[in-house]
From TrEMBL:
Protein name listed in UniProt: Glycoside hydrolase
GO biological process, one term: carbohydrate metabolic process
Sample GO molecular function, one term: hydrolase activity, hydrolyzing O-glycosyl compounds
Residues of the site described as Important for catalytic activity, responsible for pKa modulation of the active site Glu and correct orientation of both the proton donor and substrate: D127
Coiled-coil regions, chain positions: none
Pfam families on file: Glyco_hydro_43
Entry similarity comment: Belongs to the glycosyl hydrolase 43 family.
Superkingdom to which the source organism belongs: Bacteria
Keywords, alphabetical: Glycosidase, Hydrolase
Pathway(s) per entry: Glycan metabolism; L-arabinan degradation
InterPro entries documented for this protein: GH43_arabinanases, Glyco_hydro_43, Glyco_hydro_beta-prop_sf
Statement: the UniProt record of this protein carries the keyword Hydrolase: yes
Length: 308
């Protein structure tokens, strides 16, 4: 067993399984996710969000798997009675993309449902997530990376029922700079010119109690890596998407998602702080207040102290 604060993980995604009385925790678990060969993804299991069994190997690439680096941000969704993992991968000389894997059990093993990502092959894409519209049709919502387009973009694309093919063309939901809180960032690599731009990361879609469609997503703000909320004015994936003026989570942490804990409490999962190797999974209750979600100032103080 491991305590939560002993688990190094980025982009945490929690899958509650009420019939088992447990949570499964997935995320980017390679020690350094930006360099070196990709190992795979681990999963942890807990009944209280604090003490975790594992890690268990949820995914390990088999011989012939196309990608060998940047194994990022796995999410696991239940779809038509099976567990589907959406995760980002890259290989030397090939664009980064989101691929879908499946398993009969939350622990895996997860195996690809196609031999290549479903995101456009000539785009640098990442952080795909599953969304089911009001008619029950599946969509992938994903980011087109700022390193390719400077002003990062968010896209949606309809999928076939079995999640193996695209059922429509990708269409743009918004760009990073449409959110007033977003600030530029710079990426530097040895021997290369620094790259400047605006990040889109980690979309997570959810419906409010009033039936509105909202999205959590991450970028950089005044206090570092942060998360904002976008709202669909139509209530449909097509939008138009309206950005909140201020970030929902503003300080040195992000790539979050929401889940209902086993007592029904709406809970935010994110990694914090944003620096490697110190990132840890953080869970905080959130509440609806007016037209937005709120995180308490006490939570911010705790995050600030625990993040060092």
């Amino acid at each position: 067993m491991r305590n939560r604060n002993e688990i190094q993980i980025r982009d945490p995604f929690v899958l509650p399984v009420p019939e088992e009385g447990v949570y499964y925790l997935y995320g980017t678990t390679d020690r350094n996710a930006w360099s070196g060969p990709g190992t795979g993804f681990d999963v942890y299991r807990s009944s209280d969000l604090e003490r975790w069994e594992g890690p268990f190997p949820a995914f390990r690439p088999e011989e012939g798997f196309w990608a060998n680096e940047n194994f990022w941000a796995p999410e696991v969704h239940v779809w038509r009675g099976r567990y589907y993992m959406f995760a980002s991968f890259k290989a030397e000389g090939q664009r980064r993309g989101t691929q879908i894997l499946s398993a009969a059990d939350p622990l895996g093993p997860f195996r690809p449902v196609t031999d290549r990502p479903l995101t456009p092959p000539d785009w640098e894409c990442l952080d795909g997530t599953l969304y089911a519209d009001r008619q029950g049709n599946p969509w992938i919502v994903f980011c087109r990376e700022w390193l390719q387009v400077t002003d990062g973009e968010m896209y949606a694309m309809r999928l076939t029922e079995d999640l193996t093919e695209q059922a429509g063309e990708p269409f743009k939901l918004f760009s990073a700079t449409e959110a007033p809180w977003v600030r530029s960032t710079t990426y530097e690599m040895p021997g290369r010119e620094a790259v400047y731009g605006y990040v889109t990361d980690g979309p997570f879609l959810f419906s409010t109690a009033e039936g509105e469609l909202w999205m959590l997503w991450s970028s950089h703000g005044d206090e570092g890596y942060a998360m904002g909320i976008a709202k669909s004015a139509s209530g449909e994936i097509q939008g138009p998407w309206i950005q909140e003026e201020e970030p929902f989570f503003r300080r040195d942490g992000g790539h979050g998602m929401l889940f209902a804990d086993l007592n029904g409490q709406l809970t935010l999962a994110l990694h914090c702080p944003n620096r490697t190797p110190d990132e840890r999974p953080i869970f905080y209750p959130v509440r609806a207040e007016g037209e937005t979600l709120m995180l308490s100032e006490e939570a911010y103080r705790t995050i600030s102290y625990s993040g060092g």
